[in-house]
Amino acid sequence: MSRPGLAGAPELLSRIAREYGTPAYVYDLAAVGSAAVALTADLPAPSGLVYSLKANPHPDVVGRLLADVDGAEVSSSGELAAALAAGCPPEEVVYTGPGKNLRQLVEALTAGVRRFSVESLVDRDRLADACERTGTDAEYLVRLNLPRGSARGALRMTGRPTAFGTELADTEAVAALLRARGRARPVGTHTFSATNVEDPAALLQEFHNAVAAVRLVCDTADFTPRLLALGGGFPAPMARPGALVRHPDLAAGLASGLDATFPGWRRGRPRILFESGRYLTAAAGTLLTRVLDVKSSGGRTFVVLDAGVHVLGGMTGLGRLMSPGARPLTVGGSGDGEETEVTLAGPLCTPLDVLSASTRLVGPRPGQLLAVPNTGAYGPTASLLGFLSHPGPVEVVVDGPRVRGARRLVVNSEEVAPRV
Description:
- The chain is of the alpha/beta class.
- About 25% of the residues lie in helices and about 25% in strands.
- The strands form three sheets. Strands 1, 13, 14, 15, 16, 17, 18, 19 and 20 form a nine-stranded mixed beta sheet that branches. Strands 2, 3, 4, 5, 6, 8, 9, 11 and 12 form a nine-stranded parallel beta sheet that branches.
- The chain starts with 9 loop residues before the first helix and ends in a 12-residue tail after the last strand.
């Protein structure tokens, strides 16, 4: 079996497991940079790319990406703090999300953020209120809930009842959103159809559909956009071997569509902006875990790991997403014997703690060191860190063979004074 990325460096991974323990995430900064270069090369020029921190807010990962992308997309005060701490200029931040409260907006404006995505009239008016309170001006993108496209992604964001955006059929609301309110003024639109669209042709069609819909909206409202944020959806394998998919036809295909709908886009009128989190970080991460036990039940072999849904695929543990279907690789010579079909279970006291219902391992045994590849996106911070109070995973950052640093995520509580 091929061993992509860090899984092909058994000496380094074994040393990290000995020195820092398991479960441990290992992030390869070289792979982060390679993914950014690859995706940028596949996008139509000129266009921009921002990093979505929700995929992985580790400060070293964010800092590395800021050298190759055009800013950050954040959806919370914590993500904003991480982006700014990593060196992202506040004017290069896009603040998104369907539930931004007044405190968050005031905090962002005070920090220097000037660009937001608004999801509704209430969201826009709250931004205008925050602008008045802080004495600042802000630009905003109108997020649109587009009709359903043909692509099948891991998670549809539009084309169905959703808390995201304003439906095109609500023409009055869309028209009102494209008019300024106080010190908040519209500069364009924000669309995002689906995540993790594995078929490059389907992803291109999603972008074409978005551009056509935005053209219709702008014509109907007599609005000239300065910025079109077209979202993302760029796929990456999750917790299994595999390489990032390139999109060789995306740049030319989307450029031709933009030429027909927004002919000034090559001169930045409007500017085209994409966002990505999963594609930029997934291949950079490897999860190290040890086998705690191997047991048989009902004719099935269960391999119990020290990594469970508190570490990886936490939303799976809540029954909200499909199991990640983890397919780990043995590290070094830690696997001998016959290949066995097994169920991978974690250490948590719940039958929902399953990382794979069925996968194959060579000679599974207690103490065996495994590496789960392609786990740099939606790992620790998308997991059930607080459930059952297990220690959080260690996160180790490497640059080539050199370990740059290590930290452990910890869930803390703090006293809160009543509001006056």
